[in-house]
Amino acid sequence: MIGVEHAWIIPAIPLGSFIILALLHNVLPRKGDWLGVLAILTSFALVWFVVADAFTNYPDHLPGRESLEWIEAGRFRVDLGIHVDEVAIVMLIVVTTVALMVNIYSTGYMQERHGLTAEEQRRLLPATAAAHGGHGDTHGDAGHVESSGHHETASAVPEPRYGWFFAVLSLFAFAMLTLVLADNLLLMFAAWELVGVCSFFLIGFYWERRSAAEAAKKAFITTRIGDVGMLIGIIMLWKATGTFHIQTVLHAAETGQIGHTYLVISALFLLMGPIGKSAQVPLHVWLPDAMEGPTPVSALIHAATMVVAGVYLVARMLPLFEAADLLRVILTMGMITAVFASIVALAQTDLKKVIAYSTLSNLGIMMVALGAGSVTAAMFHLMTHAFFKACLFLGAGSVIHATHTQEMGPLGGLWKKMPITGTTFIIAALANAGIIPLAGFWSKDEILHSIDSHAGVVWFVIALVWVVLSGMYTARLVGYTFLGKPRDQHIYSHAHESPFAMTLPLIILGALSIVAGFPILHEVGNSLGLPGGISEFLLTPGEHAEEFHFNVGLATAGTLSALLGMFITGFLMASPGRMARFTAAIPGPYNLVKNKFYFDEMYQWLIDRVILVVAYGVAWFDRHVVNDTGVDGFSSLLNYTGFRLKFAQTGKIPNYALAIVIGVLTLAVIAFSTNS
Amino acid sequence: MDNLNQSGYWLLAVWLVPLLTALVMVFIPSRFAGVIRGLAGVSGVVMFALSLYIFIGYQVGEGNIQFEKSWVWMENAGILGPGGISLHMGVDGIAAPMVLLTGIVIMAGNVVSWKIQFRNKDFYILLLVLVSGVFGTFVALDMFFFFFMYELAVIPMYLLIAVWGSTRKEYGAMKLTVMLVAASVLIFVGMFAVYTKAGIGSFDLVRLWAVAQTPNGPMDPQFQKIFFPFMVIGCGVLGALWPFHTWSPDGHMAAPTAVSMLHAGVLMKLGAFGIIRLGIQLFPEGAEFWMPGLMVLGTINAVYGSFSALAQRDFKQMIGYSSVSHMGYVMMGLATMNLVGINGAVLQMFAHGVMTALFFAMVGGLYDQAHTREMAVFGGLAGKMPKFSIFFMIAGLSGVGLPAMAGFVAEFNIFVGLFRSYPLFGVLAVLSAATSAAYVFRMFAIVFFGRFNTRWSGLRDIQKTEVFAGTVLAASILFMGVLPKPFTDRISPSVLALPGVIDPTADTPQTAETPNSDHNYDLRPERRRHDAIGWSA
Questions:
Q1: Is the residue at B256 inside a domain?
Q2: B250 vs A275: CA distance, rounded Å
Q3: Which chain B residues have a beta carbon less than 8 Å from that of A217?
Q4: Number of residue pairs across A and B with CB atoms under 8 Å?
Q5: Which residues of B fall within a CB distance of 8 Å from A189?
Q6: What is the total count of domains within chain B?
Q7: Is B525 inside a domain boundary?
Q8: A261 to chain B: nearest residue by CA?
Q9: Longest C-alpha distance within chain B, in Å?
Q10: Is A272 left (phi over 0), alpha (psi -120 to 50) or beta?
Q11: A261 and B431 in contact by Cβ < 8 A?
Q12: 10 Å Cβ neighbour count for B221?
């Protein structure tokens, strides 16, 4: 029987799979994709054993613990261990479910390479004739999109790094599950960095593309900036408490054993990690670019799991942030991210970028929930969001697979061609908008409730605006892709439904997007063995116990806001050209939004004009001042001195005799003067 | 010690194997290049095996000197008293990992150098003499032989670079040698000052340490404060201490592959090792007085080195500056004078050693084919040279301090030590870790990713010798990253035995066991005292 304390096996299995795949993927049949799927399937199954054990005599078996000594030096001791509590269990379910879906999906999607440029195609598949003619001419409303070169249609090329992809997916699963289970901040940080590296490799998976290489680098360095802050925070907390163990640190913070100012500073540093990883403004810039990675990666890492690590960390450490009085900061930061991202999502034309900004916006609202002090709402939304957002991304991948483009401009009307993808995508999109009774509705309702009761009416109104915006971009996303008339007949005629390996995960995730919200209801919760529903299950110690009650007013407000947003977009899209006229009428704001508020440009300026200038300055100083002037200068000085002195060596006896006389006289004078 | 398992003859052997191999090589006609290669390979494996034996055989626990053995060389003559100069060998928990590091790097270096065609016999003879000097320095417990070995390690470098090097090799070799020898003069002066002042008529380091640590002994605080900088700057130059680091980038750029590997991988560690042996242990009072100064220089090293690396265009120069930056961490760790910080410094010596050796081994594999090290002319090498890229990335990720790599364990210990004693320097150190991510990942993006430049379509992936070297070094990186315990268990008791080193956790509340129930926290002592600089609670 596998108990909660054996949960460490769950990450260990993908690690084993990674090692085998990394070394042997070229000799295994099918490049070992089955091994990756099998490993995550085993982990997925084990999670349910852990869940079963957790529910036996609930909550006696929680939290499950296990640890081993890693470093011991004098009295400085670091243990690595796991801590399985309710929040971790929900995360385990989310991570293994989505990872399993993505692994299965990838066996179909990753067989061939998507979105190649003509040049890449020539190199990877010399036999292929030049790609067929460009994309269509009827771009419709979203037509003011400059189709960049690499989104041109292209015929399929087998993926040359298929096995490596599954190896990194396994490594990622290991790292992410370790992050979830970690009982101390150091192990969590280690896993945190590892998922970052997996993300780097997967964003840069198509590294032949300069843009992918740049995006991978940007993602790593941006999150790294957050991570070093986080490391400072972790070490500061260690300094105050002498331990990295999360529960002990929390206890120390709650009982006031850490001075307040010190606590605030260390908590702010710690918060930098989540800001980077969960892509909160201003460190959000890497996430939209991360869409350069293969689409299954976007679903797994950049929607459902890795990016929510920050939310998870804050949720776990919430008592600390509460003790440091930082909840309002988290709330504000989250709300800025949420509203900012949903506005930017309105003007993006790349299918995946829209979904990416939608992810950003949802991450923001999870932070808002945490800022309102509700771990329950945040974690619940994290779960439902993981399912519907993964479904959206995988659906987008299916579209890319079928059409070889991810610009929304030439798409349209695909629902008819791709019924399964279209249906699941629309379900997930409606869940994202928060339409009753889909999963997203329940979790958004919880968040709205927590904002309403803990943050105040102003924040509640802003949250409603956010819901409206979510409805707007969701409707635009679906409208341009699956509804309406096809804008490019060529693409439309070639579009086809994806293979079963890809539609199966879509169906499962689509189903989860419908039902994942129900456990909040007491009746459903009871039947699942969660008395009081999932919200009570997720309740962390210290949180105010609040039972879920269906609040009709709140539900109506949320749903109506979402419908309003969808209606606005629908109105603009209903007649051809209306959207274009609308955007042309407000060029200033439109360009600001379309260019993502120029964040990238600001950072580029900062890098080019400040950091690189400093670097070149230091290098110049080192070369010319320290080396050429200091070191070589000293050497030249010696050389010159020697050169000058050599003229004293005249070879003429009278000169030497004179020198001797002068020397003797000088010595005599010194001797006499010191004697007297 | 009579016990054969821990006999000092093991240390004598590890010192003599390279010397004797070199001696044998002298008598092999140089036309038998294959025999010479084979001999070099075998001696590399033997050295590795011996060093591994010494590392494993070092008994964990007390941090004392083990494998100790002494042969008197000269005594009761002139100024020398009884036991004046003796070949006194032994390792403590700090030297043991260094010996292992040397064994690993020389095995890899010897194999990588098989491809040298030009006068390979002479090359190996010099390389082996150099390594013998390195082993000798790490195990010497006599100040005279310490210095002797130290010089033995530095001098062959001149010829190795000037004859077999590349890019501005005469300049690089000259600068390196002159700077290091000039620094040795400082050590020399310090050495005789100690000898005279201690007045025991012996160069035996163990006895001198005892004298230095005697309260109110002959080596008074004033004397220690004056002569500590001699030793630290003397050794620090070899450790690339700012502003005496400029030999490092130029020297590395000029040096042939195996020499770069040994030099950056091991020789620079001699500098830091010298700071421990001749600085901290010989001048405890001086160390206490001067360590904040070393902290400042180390911080400059770390930050300045990483920014310089960001601006470099040449592979080896970039790695050279990254070495400057990483050695800065070592200096900072040493300057903390607390257990965790110095532990971290020693761990970093090992971690940086294997990492940078791996870097140079790979760069060598590329340079020999491409004959340029300009990063910008490459691109998309990950597809063309996958093995090369994987090894290079492992080294890079370790340098960035990625968990599960050696660099993380080391840097993390240093950071903890720094925050304990010098929090603001700790912040600077951690920030420079972000810069190191920038230069490493920038290099990844430029060199390995992006469009492949067809100019390099003739490149082949690295050869078997380089794969061997890479595997050994990468395995070391991963081993230490995942299981640092064998290292810390050896290092920390010896570090704690150093004079003036405090256990930083001694006054922090201890969490004996993790609490058994989530909701019942363990009862812990009262709030801890904040004695260090920084924000007090």
A1: yes
A2: 40
A3: 441-442, 444-445
A4: 209
A5: 403
A6: 1
A7: no
A8: B537
A9: 77
A10: alpha
A11: no
A12: 14
ipTM of the prediction: 0.86
Domain encompassing residue B61? 9-507
Rg (CA), chain B: 23
The full length of chain B comes to 537
* Closest-CA residue to A387 (of A412, A362, A407): A362
Segment A547-566, tens digit of pLDDT: 666 778 888 888 888 899 88
At A203, list the tokens: 């964003």
Q: Which amino acid is at B53?
A: Y
- pLDDT bracket for residue A119 (50, 70, 90): low
pLDDT for A381 equals 92
More confident residue, A51 or A15: A15
User: What pLDDT, on a 0 to 100 scale, did the predictor assign at position A142?
Assistant: 39
Q: What are phi and psi of B489, to 5 degrees?
A: -60, -35
A76/B503 Cβ within 8 A? yes
Which three-class secondary structure string do you get for A73-100?
ECCEEEEEEEEECHHHHHHHHHHHHHHH
The answer to whether the bond into A274 is cis (omega within 30° of 0) is: no
Mean of pLDDT values over A631-643: 88
Query: Smallest CA–CA separation between A312 and chain B, in Å?
Result: 18
Residue A657 burial (10 A CB sphere; 0-12, 13-18, 19+) = exposed
Query: Who has greater pLDDT, A511 or A577?
Result: A511
| CB A40 within 8 Å of CB A103 | yes
Q: How far apart are CA A309 and CA A273, in angstroms?
A: 9
Query: Is the omega angle on the peptide bond into residue A11 within 30 degrees of 0, that is, cis?
Result: no
- CB-nearest to B536 from A119, A123, A259 is A259
Residues of chain A with pLDDT > 70, as a percent, come to 90
Q: Give the tokens for residue A676.
A: 């007297």
Q: Which residue carries 């502003």 as its tokens? A: B243
Can you list the residues of chain B whose pLDDT is less than 50? 1, 510-537
Residue B532 resides in a domain: no
Tell me if B518 is assigned to some domain: no
Q: Which of A81, A239, A252 sits opposite B514 (nearest CB)?
A: A81
